[in-house]
Amino acid sequence: MSGTEEAIRAIRDDSRFQSACMVMREEHGRTVEDIIRLTEIPAPPFGEGPRAAAYLEMLRDHGLEECRQDEVGNVMGLRRGFGNGDILVVAAHLDTVFPADTDVRVRREGTKLMAPGVGDDTRSLAVNLAFLRAMDRAGIRTRHDILFLGDVGEEGLGDLRGVRHFFETHPQRSRIRGFLTVDSPEVDRIVTGGIGSKRFRVTFRGPGGHSFAAFGLVNPVYAMADAARALAAMPVPREPVTTHCVSVISGGTSINAIPETAVMEVDLRSASAEVLGKLEADFLAAVDAAVAAENGARSGGLKVELQRVGDRPAGHTPNGAPIARLASASVAAEGYQPSFEWSSTDANVPMSFGIPALRIGSGGRGGRAHSLEEWIDVEEEESLRGMRTSLATILALAEMETSR
After folding, report:
1. How far apart are CA 94 and CA 134, in angstroms?
2. How crowded is the C-beta side of 72, counted as CA atoms within 13 Å?
3. Which CB contacts under 8 angstroms, 24+ apart, belong to 243-246?
4. DSSP 121
5. pLDDT tens string 323-366
6. How far, in Å, CA of 115 to CA of 122, rounded?
7. Do 360 and 180 meet the contact criterion of CB atoms below 8 Å apart?
8. pLDDT tens-digit readout, 176-187
9. Listing from the earlier edge strand, what are the strands of the sheet with 261-270?
């Protein structure tokens, strides 16, 4: 048995961990109630304020120290360790992908809860509170402090702004030994790789005019189409995984008018910062070439405006790193088959700084994330099985005091 497996076994065999698991079972109904309560507080992009306020109050009610809200809206509180050690950050994001007018009332069918955002990532917010109650009632002590974080801006154009701000400004950043984002239910999928992304809104502008009478003037759509086709033709490696997409287009005023503007939004991604940088450079060169070609073919002077709307750093926690080995051992101890995967999560930011970081799951099952049909299953046994898994990972990284 490896040292990591022994560490997980020591935690799982400890009577206090077993007591904590019993507390989570006894309070399963309360955890479900917390999921429903938080889900029904809208948290659209850049509108997380009401949910953040509610969650901050919940952190205070759970007896954490140094509870506060920072300048961008993150809320946090500290569970102090006994050893004057480092800090383990355990996060879940407050925001959802859904706009402010979305109906977020929870529908329940048996053990299933259905509502936009219920699994990504509201369940995790509630589960982190359940971890706190279980640790406190079981009398669990850890050598290192655990900072519980509810962060803003994980989704979409939020561009990881909450965690980015946290790591740029937290006064004790040098003490952070690791970062876990609890994000979505699946505990067997451990995210060790952070997919970086560059996102642009590209606006092509011309004088516009009558489609017949002004024929011969530059057409922004032609330039946009050339740039889009150039991106489509760009080869990208399968390893490291790299992708590109023209995702949103708009422009024009009438069927019989040369448009004044054409706009496209573009998403570029890669597991490699170097490859992503080259893809970005090639795309920007393609935009310049498309503008030059249109200006060379017609009159009127086409211009382009480039707005960077997203810049997520790439990063990687090696699969053999202690944090990854502990998480994998915890997953395996519950009978799951662990896998290491790549994704884009709040863990990208600490990974890019060289801080050990992972995405772990909140337990249970779910599906249809980012859709109006999003759901989770809060069936007790499978939910608790997943929660035990992630709690053991947290306690191993925070160095729980055990009887061994």
Report:
1. 22
2. 24
3. 243/267, 243/268, 243/269, 243/270, 244/268, 244/269, 244/279, 244/283
4. I
5. 999 999 999 999 999 999 999 999 999 999 999 999 999 999 99
6. 10
7. yes
8. 999 999 999 999
9. 242-251, 261-270, 196-205, 303-312
